Amino acid sequence: MPEITYVRGDATTPLGKGVKIIAHVCNDVGGWGKGFVLALSRRWPEPEADYRRWHRGRSGNDFGLGAVRCVRVEQYVWVANMVGQRGIRTGSKGVPVRYGAIDSALGVLADRAVELGASVHMPRIGCGLAGGTWSRVEPLMSERLTSRGIAVTVYDHGD
With helix as H, strand as E and coil as C, how does the chain read? Predict the structure, then answer.
């Protein structure tokens, strides 16, 4: 069973060979404009455009907590928009992260990664603006991804 590999770097330039899926957490209110999504949008317009279309059409599709959309951005690179946070601000109901939604989304992501023969690359999802803790997210990744033989690389940005 592979382990999670931790590296310093930019998750929008995933390391290694073969098909890669860059996974990240989105909110459920259609907001795209802070955090990791800015780095994605600097590289490719497709993930943001797809997310906004998906959100606009939510009355007739599966958009909501736990849902995932994979968008192809290069021949061997996909971006997984995973809806794993309720709203965008910490308030009376706590932080925006929803661990159950991230868990569900990782299950969907795992199926897609197996189908594509892909490795998964990501920042520490749910732990930035969403307010989550890595000690809660990491076991979900182990259970949903590495236990199925999927190689996972987590990128810590900066020096």
Answer: CCCEEEEECCCCCCCCCCCEEEEEEEECCCCCCCCHHHHHHHHCCHHHHHHHHHHHCHHHCCCCCCCEEEEEEECCEEEEEEEEECCCCCECCECCECHHHHHHHHHHHHHHHHHHCCEEEECCCCCCCCCCCHHHHHHHHHHHCHHHCCCEEEEECCC
